[in-house]
Write the structure tokens for this entry.
Amino acid sequence: QVQLQESGPGLVKPSETLSLTCTLSRGSMRSYYWSWIRQPPGKGLEWIGHIYYSGGTNYNPSLKSRVTISVDTSKNQFSLKVTSVTAADTAVYYCARGPTSGSHGYFDYWGQGALVTVSS
Amino acid sequence: DTQMTQSPSSLSASVGDRVTITCRASQSISPYLNWYQQKSGKAPKLLIYGASSLQSGVPSRFSGSGSGTDFTLTISSLQPEDFATYYCQQSYSTPYTFGQGTILEI
């Protein structure tokens, strides 16, 4: 059973960089895409971007200028950085496996989520 | 971007009821439509993928249908554990987008 766990600071100051890491246990990163998805408090879900295990990325254009996703398969981890954050970036950040079955797939395993608050 | 619109936004129902939630895409996305269930404080859980395929371990009372731009999620007989928020999501093209959610209440 694939398990994912987000980790990182829960509080980030405005204009600084948000950094999160997702660690995979009980599974392999090989041959899969790995995504970050966020959910502002009380709101819906927004796909941030994904990375293939070999390193290729695809980002949501709404965030593309501020987002970097990277992968370290030796540690079974992938990471998210969002620069120049504002209060609008306050959200629960989920890591997820997918899209599976190619780029038209779905997100079948999710981390429990990490709340990141942007505030001074 | 492909816009996803769910209806209704909220729904009150009782245990044993048959419930249908609708999702409409701003362009044809067949068959790349997925459904998720989210309970309060928890991560979303995949229910249906490819419009109508049931994810492993999901009860058979959940079903999905539709094509083109219009899709539905049906729960044949509501159970107490089904009260949650449901989201549709298109995986036809990036950026992948979600519906705004349907809150299913007792």
The mean pLDDT of chain B is 97. The interface with chain A takes residues 1, 32, 34, 36, 42-46, 49-50, 55, 87, 89, 91-92, 94-101 of chain B (CB under 8 Å).
